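Input/output pair, single chain:
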Amino acid sequence: MRAAKNWIIATFILTFLVIIAGGVVRTTQSGMGCPDWPKCFGSWIPPTNASQLPPDFEKYLQKQDIDHSFNVWHTWIEYINRLLGALLGVFAIIQVALLIRLKKDYRTSWRLAVAFLIVVILTGLFGALVVKLNLAHLSISVHLLFALILIQVQLALLLSIQSQLSVITLDSSLRKLLILFLCLLFIQSSVGTMVRMYVDDVSKTLHYEQRSTWLAETPVAFLVHRSFSWIVLIVSLLLVWKGRTSPVRKYLFILTGIILMSVFTGITLFYADMPAAAQPIHLLLATLAFTQGFYILFKGKSPAN
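Output:
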């Protein structure tokens, strides 16, 4: 059982690494660094310089949305992202295999492991569609949604095999407020994807330069996203106040801390001319906020139970 638990923890960490890698791909505009799938420029191992490109390389370069030229950094950033995704698939398969012999006593864990594997496969297949659609806005957003679902399923799996972690009483009114918070956070993240779509369009027309002008016109989606962030923060503070005597108070403090850092990175993105490093951090913090919120929700139980 210890081997299974350790593997589940490792898979949980790897899932976060895959999401971070995806954020780096988006930040560096490397999404079409490998313009075909599952291979990259027709090969399983991509070229390291232009001389290694296949004879028909132009048909691949025409699919790119930057300058239609070979960029080794974009290619390998995207390729490493794919390798991490493939590695996650291997981890998911091994995870299922480790739980086969335990499924009689850990039926919920077994089902969650199978569900995780299925979502990993769907995420990989949808990644192929994202490439085929040349990074269409909606496809990127759905791909991110798959990643968020992966994290939550793996979190539920992790808690299901550590039953001692799920014995904290969570007041029903606090639970309802936490659910409200997660709904608001989902809305906030959805509006955030609209901001990202706008930024993608503007940055593309500017050849991914002049970062200070990407939000110069302050679109409506950005104004809503910025204002709504204060609502999310206020509700998180309300959670801390309402749960000040609850056994989960320290987890609520962590949740609010994550939201504060997310707000700070959002302010940094706007006032510091969209620094590239802040973009994946902003995405990571949003993912952490969802995960922390669901962790508290999964961890606690109502007094009646």
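The beta strands are 168-169, 300-301. Residues 172-205 form the longest helix (34 residues).
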